Amino acid sequence: MASTAAEAKGEGKAARRLRLGPGMISGLEATPLIAILGFFFLLPILMIAVVSFWDYDFAGLYPDFLTMNYEETLGSWVTWKTYLNTLKYTVIVWALTAVIGFWVAYFLAFHIRTTTMQMVLFLVCTVPFLTSNIIRMISWIPVLGRNGLVNSTLIEMGLIPAPIEWLLYSEFAVVLAMVHLNTLFMVTPIFNTLMRIDRSLIEAARDAGASGWQILWNVILPLAKPGIAIGSIFVVTLVMADFSTVQIMSGGQSASVALMMRNQMSLLQYPAAAANAVVLLVVVLLMVAAILRVVDIRKEL
After folding, report:
1. 3-state SS string over 233-263?
2. Is pLDDT at 153 greater than 50 in this prediction?
């Protein structure tokens, strides 16, 4: 009996020694996610940062620690001009998608009464995403081209004597295609935020004598800020990293940072492209940080 009691006492001590605290349990549960993010996200970024300091020539890459790539990137007026051009596209596309996305989400959330019809119309908005971005982008070419649908219609109606040249292969075409490709990324988070607004708040404002515009400005917009911020992050990151739209829709007449990196990689200038990628990453993170400083999105996550 004494030996049995001693064994039970020993097992109890071992169990207490093996008992894990809440912090340790949470760490173990997060280990798979940390491993996946580390391997597929942090490791590639680390490799890009390492390669950005390497030397290179037409024959190959040479591991080294040189600041030459960053000096050439940040010391070139072409790079600064390209960044400014990319930021211009980003600001214009963000503004247009924010306005269009908010009103589409507002219509779905407050003017469509039944949940079924809301979901049906929302799914209609997502139908274009069943095809590739490239296909949706180049579909504008027969619409905006010199002999395209828009020009042909305007000429037949007698509104213009000759085709409008700037509709295609111009900055207008680039912005139009980007807005088309990215508006849904603004609609979705704003719609999700508007659907969470307590309708009693709107009724209370209306009972207090507020007009429709006052309700929109003082009640709905402040409560929709988290959704607008999330959509802004999506749009900003996607536009800053877009190169195919700029290349195709501008006809090679405009440039972006991502397109510049793509051209460097086609010339096997991988360290220079890696340096540009690091600079672009820093710029995008600063823009995202600025958005997060203005709006707290934690309530939406």
Report:
1. HHHHHHHHCCCHHHHHHCCCCCCCHHHHHHH
2. yes
